[in-house]
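User: Can you write out an input/output pair for a complex, sequences first and structure second?

Assistant: Here is one pair. Inputs:
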Amino acid sequence: MGLFEKHSTLLNQAIDALHKRTFFAAYPEHPAPAVYGETADADGQAAFKTALGKKFELLKQADPVAWIGVEESPYTQEPLGITYPAFSIDTLISRAQSAYHVWRKVSAQDRTGILIESLERVRVRFFEIAYATMHTTGQGYMMAFQASGPHAADRALEAIAAGYEELQRFPSATLWDKPMGKFNIQLNKEWRAVPKGISLVIGCSTFPTWNTVPGLYASLVTGNPVIVKPHPGAVLPIALVVAEIQQVLSEQNLDPNICQLAVDSYDKTITKELAEHPSVKLIDFTGNSAFGSYLEGLQGKAVFTEKTGVNSVILDSVADADKVASNLAFSLSLYSGQMCTAPQNFYIPESGIKTASGTVSFDEFAQKLVDNINSLADNPKAGPFVLGAIQNKNTCTRVADAEKIPGKVWVKSRAIENPMFKNARVNTPILVEVDAAKKEVFSKELFGPIALLIKTKDTDHSIALAQEMAIHHGAISCGAYTTDSAVREKIADAMALAATPVSFNLVGGIYMNQNAGFSDFHVTGGNPSGNASFTNPEYVVKRFTWVGHREPVAAG
Amino acid sequence: MGLFEKHSTLLNQAIDALHKRTFFAAYPEHPAPAVYGETADADGQAAFKTALGKKFELLKQADPVAWIGVEESPYTQEPLGITYPAFSIDTLISRAQSAYHVWRKVSAQDRTGILIESLERVRVRFFEIAYATMHTTGQGYMMAFQASGPHAADRALEAIAAGYEELQRFPSATLWDKPMGKFNIQLNKEWRAVPKGISLVIGCSTFPTWNTVPGLYASLVTGNPVIVKPHPGAVLPIALVVAEIQQVLSEQNLDPNICQLAVDSYDKTITKELAEHPSVKLIDFTGNSAFGSYLEGLQGKAVFTEKTGVNSVILDSVADADKVASNLAFSLSLYSGQMCTAPQNFYIPESGIKTASGTVSFDEFAQKLVDNINSLADNPKAGPFVLGAIQNKNTCTRVADAEKIPGKVWVKSRAIENPMFKNARVNTPILVEVDAAKKEVFSKELFGPIALLIKTKDTDHSIALAQEMAIHHGAISCGAYTTDSAVREKIADAMALAATPVSFNLVGGIYMNQNAGFSDFHVTGGNPSGNASFTNPEYVVKRFTWVGHREPVAAG
């Protein structure tokens, strides 16, 4: 049985889920021993520890010019000491070009089978990838497992399914039979889905697999060779994924350079040179807006970006203010606000928030948020694991600088102790009240555990500000709390026009930061926070070109 | 019965045809009295004549600042004398912005019903539009009828069907029910297809409806208001279409400014100002490469272009050289080479073309082409009607200059008499032999009745040149003649990589210039001849954004 047949049931489930958008997950998100094996966690941790301080030799890319690696753990603040093979731009491009003419001739079915098989292999390494993710991104263990493991694999499968479906959209051949009255004109027609060419996928430091695999698998399933250029600070998690892809390719007697890893270091980055290379036709990027916009401006390439945004929470009326404050404090704290979906700007009317038991004033709600932030941080069984660690030292500087924002500091950021890692780089959220007139303060992303409380004239003012921020500065998520159906529709419409999805009235164990594969489009592509969406049809159709040839049935 | 129900059978047929790509045409291409009515032709001609020299008062756009119009007939070389209402940029934009918030709230079903109804109204005017097209573009009567009437309406229906299908792709609402072990998280989710905003559709002088209606209807069906900016030299055909759209909108009590006509003149063009306006989010353009590339470079807009290309014919081996020469001479002559799909560069090996009855030398085949060009031009029942007239005087200059191309002029362009229009601007094709080393001569589009014969070392050389031209300078069509299946696949693969569709071994009554709606993608979007394709999924999905909102089933 071939790999396509082996995985066709899963593929069909995934395609069905893409359309229905009801709950679907191919890879269980809980690291349960019953699912992943009794020793899976311990084995994964051991494998991670074994990798430290050594060459990463799982890749099938021959003849490196050097071995490089600069990762360090936000938990220990020490180098991982892992080095990866490095190659010249010419080598990377020429290998990709050769691989292109191999891979594009592999059928869509075979490509799909190979790629799903690679996810099954990655599944076996979920725990190893989880520890690699913790010690490069600073994510807590549970997030590291879920985001880099099952959730990333689901997003990859989603991209494969979307690509496969588009490749099947038109017939490979048909008879075109046109009645002309006394005779028919008959043409044999055929259509080829021609992959665009070399695909460059640029990773980020905070979600090194989750944000990389959608573009990686979308390009591969549509027949393009891929060069993965990870962030220098977060290589290992995606290196393990690339190694598994190369392994399956090799087993199928295909060139492993169909998917290459291209590692660089902070002092000698290769991203621009790769991106500007005329043979690179596709670019996926997650990261800062300036570089993303530069990439979007490159001519002759299809570019898919996820950049920065200013995420808002609109507070109008609530059933239970305490539940809301608890939910939002968790959203703020989760991975220390280092998620692209984390809330930043909280708009509260100066008259307060209407509740079933009377109005909660601006100050009262601010205090509830403070109390919830503190009680979460100070809960030793939750705080350190929810907050994780700060990936980049610059984020700590930004948090410190936030105290200088003009306005009342409701709670300062502070360090808490992580019981497992004494040197962990930890900052609890800082909460600052900002005047609604001071747009220059809150109209930019303040990446990290920084939240702003903005006192507005009324909910219409809140909506207008949230919409304006999203349209002009981008937004990836939005939270809104209202018990009034007319206000709800006003928010839904205003934010839809700003291409921003709204989570209404979330309380309990679901947060605006969370996006589910096969159901929630991630980034809409319709505002400055990015031009692409996981995984809508545009995300895959732009990676290949339909070309149709034709010939008379009886030529001559 | 609503308009959607009225037209749902046709819509479903169109969607089915889009997928199967077998023959489908909603609007019969032959101007048969039995189909369109005994007096339809005479009535259409009379309506056209009545319009001459008057204000065009069928539009529902109030308070013009001026009445302008500069069209002249290539057949009479006299002004049509028709003037159209003109508006300030501010008026056009502010009316479109108001209309946006009306049109986006009309359901996809209702929009689809309204738009198909408008095509049914346009159908009644096919003959009037045909005469308007003849006397603006110079097309012969049959082409003017077919291209501007039924073929354009089919392309419009194709865009409506493709857009409607994409709008139905995801559910408007669903229950997301995630098992968490002891409980389920249940979210009500909804998705909105949010139109991007004001759409500007820029027409060309040679196919004023055929090249305009796909973008026009694709933008409208996906909820965007449209400003149609026709070429100043070819307004009337598309003005009649816009008038019918406005009529149906008015009957439905909708703002007719959902689709506006924005006429300008050569001495005061408004295209750039409209295109650069920040409220314009979508741009469709057919025309020259320089302006098209400028538009593609505008940031923050989705731009769909059809620009220029260098179309090749690769001659390797044929069953019957005379039939091939006859077919290609017709392709060259049809509308005097003013089709974007017309062949320009003919690559013939120096060793000649292999045939069933021996080799036909380069010179022998060149002479066959000359003989066929002449016999078609000199056939009074065919020549004038196939050639039509030259739309733009500059094309005549280009044809005259072509005699100076270094190489043997196999046949010069000449004027022939059109029996119905003594003043018609007519040029038969010029055929020049060019050295294969002189790439600077044949690596650009020579718009009009100009063809080049290029002597190559062998067929591999021919293929390499055709591919190079397409990759670097664009190509919209390619002809190829070979009786060798290995050579056929070599050509099919090489031109697929250059994103150029190939017509193999066409003889008889079908020509490489012709593209059928619902089957042949027009322009692939994969080479410099344009970045868009009629009508592939990308052509419609980029016109709106999917935005999903969600809320717990039991909030609070």
